[in-house]
Design brief:
The complex is a heterodimer. By secondary structure, chain A is of the alpha/beta class. Chain A contains 7 helices and 10 strands. In chain A, strand 4 and strand 5 form a beta hairpin. Chain B contains 11 helices and 4 strands. Classes of the chains: A alpha/beta, B alpha+beta.
């Protein structure tokens, strides 16, 4: 268990407003238990991506308290944010691969940012490429990869640093069912190693495939269902 | 974090780090803009240094020289006073030379105005004595003036430095002008780098955002750009130095051919060339600093 203790993420009355518009997220209060697996669901426009942006520290909330890894991140000095981000793996919905780097170099980037020695980079990158089935495409640039392949590179990049918290926005949206299964298996393997997983998805069929997963359901920026056992949540709607 | 620090970001200076910013080496106009600015900076600096050395040389050479004129219609009295002054001046501390201008030299000097018959008529011509003190003799001119006046109160004393005061003032002004030009060029180069760094930040916006999300620090990102801009600045600086050196050398050759003592004193010693050679390095350091500050300030506006 990390230094965060029982909860790796804690939201208390969190609200998020972009500019002068109405709140995108309102009164969110929930906790993510360290080492657990969560699905974040809800209709389009419910605020899933905005919530994830708060979790992977791309945004500060307009109000409320967010604690991550045991510390208040709302008032966290900007200089300390990189240290927190290095503990979070993020899979973006639009992948955000660096277009002029190969798949290999994109996956290696978090290790290099973390100061891992060049000699210690090749083996884990090759392993990740194999995990996501892209060993033969290591030298390919993102523009030459299919949407599914780009998504797998993005996932490999997010997990290679063994993050304490993995945040994924629709990570199986562009892959076939077999690959979706493999990716979920990868997430579960990471989860068993202690990584807390938060996956935003439209695909409710994925949820029962992960044992002990919990579901957070958002609707119109509010918590429609707080973290709860997946099967029970499935049953209630 | 030091400007050139490596630390955990050493990969940024490796081939892998260089690939993060994909433009080719020396792409864009910045190296050439820097080259033009360095060319002008080196010319201004060379002019300033040469004028500085010329001013120093003139000052050293002329500040200890005076000419004494004894104007007396009575040839005997004039010659006697001149002899006494030569004798007294030779005993002054720090005196380097005392020389009475001979009648033959005076005749030659005055020939353009008075014609060739000067030696044959009785036209009274002043006796002239040149005194020179060793460089760094304090109060030598004043002591000589006092000694001369004690012997011949009507003697006229011309300190050479006083004739060169306007020229020295002009040289001083030109040196300041050259220094201001160098500073203006440095400021212009820094502003150019600021604009180039901002443009590069916009071009690589997406890459920077990803790097930030992966946990890159501002310093790591700034170092990527610093390296690129330093390469461009050093290349531009060396090209500018090379071209300006050729011009300075050619101008020096022209001055030497003029054969003027005054113009000939305007020259660049070896040490000055060393200073000029350091300008591209100073320019590169300035460019790196400007790029670093620009990028860090821009990044601090983001989360």
């Amino acid at each position: 268990m990390s230094a965060a203790g029982a909860h790796i993420v804690q939201f208390e009355n969190v609200g998020l407003r972009y500019g002068a518009s109405a709140e995108t997220l309102s009164d969110l209060s929930f906790q993510l238990a360290t080492g657990s697996f969560y699905f974040l669901t809800g209709p389009s426009g419910a605020g899933k991506s905005s919530l994830l942006r708060l979790v992977y520290l791309a945004q500060r909330p307009s109000r409320g308290l967010i604690r991550m890894f045991g510390e208040d991140v709302v008032t966290l000095p900007r200089a300390r944010i990189p240290d927190f981000r290095r503990r979070i793996g993020t899979v973006f919905q639009d992948f955000r691969l660096i277009p002029h780097l190969s798949a290999y170099e994109n996956i290696a980037l978090p290790l290099r940012v973390n100061g891992v020695a060049e000699a210690d980079i090749d083996a884990p990158v090759r392993e990740m490429l194999e995990w996501v089935g892209l060993s033969a495409r290591a030298a390919a640039r993102p523009a030459t990869l299919s949407g599914g392949e780009q998504q797998r590179v993005a996932i490999a990049r997010a997990v290679i640093g063994r993050p304490e918290l993995l945040v994924a926005d629709e990570p199986t949206g562009n892959v076939d069912p077999d690959m979706a299964e493999r990716l979920l298996y990868l997430f579960e393997a990471l989860n068993k190693l202690g990584t807390t997983i938060l996956v935003a998805t439209h695909d409710l069929h994925l949820i029962p495939r992960v044992a002990n997963a919990q579901v957070i359901r958002l609707d119109k920026g509010r918590l429609a269902a707080p973290p709860a056992d997946a099967i029970r949540t499935q049953g209630t709607g | 974090m030091p400007l050139f620090g490596r630390g955990s970001g050493s990969w940024l200076t490796s081939a892998a780090g260089r690939r993060l910013l994909p433009e080719g080496w020396l792409s864009g106009p910045m190296p050439w803009v820097i080259a033009i600015m360095m060319f002008l900076t080196v010319l201004a600096a060379a002019a300033g240094l040469a004028l500085g050395f010329a001013a120093h040389g003139l000052s050293t050479h002329l500040s200890g020289q005076i000419t004494v004129q004894i104007v007396d219609a009575d040839r005997e009295r004039r010659d006697e006073a001149a002899a006494r002054i030569v004798d007294a001046a030779g005993k002054l501390p720090g005196i380097a030379s005392v020389r009475r201008i001979s009648d033959a030299e005076m005749t030659e000097l005055l020939r353009p105005w008075l014609g060739a018959g000067l030696a044959d008529n009785d036209l009274p011509v002043p006796a002239m004595i040149d005194l020179a003190f060793a460089p760094g003799t304090p109060g030598g001119v004043e002591a000589a003036a006092a000694a001369v006046r004690a012997i011949s109160p009507r003697a006229r004393i011309d300190a050479h430095a006083q004739w060169l005061a306007p020229l020295a003032g002009l040289i001083g002004s030109l040196r300041w002008l050259a220094a201001v030009l160098v500073l203006l060029m440095a400021a212009a180069a820094a502003f150019t780098v600021v604009l180039a760094a901002r443009a590069a930040l916009n071009t690589h916006q997406a890459t920077i955002e990803v790097m930030h999300h992966l946990g890159s620090t501002d310093e790591q990102i700034a170092r990527l750009f610093q390296r690129r801009i330093a390469t461009d600045a050093l290349f531009g600086g060396l090209i500018g130095l090379l071209l300006a050196s050729l011009v300075v050398f050619a101008v020096g050759e022209r001055i030497a051919k003029v054969g003027s003592d005054l113009l000939g004193s305007v020259e660049l010693p070896l040490g000055a060339w060393g200073v000029l050679a350091l300008l591209p390095i100073a320019g590169t350091m300035l460019a790196m600093l400007a790029a670093r500050m620009t990028i860090l300030v821009a990044l601090r506006r983001r989360l």
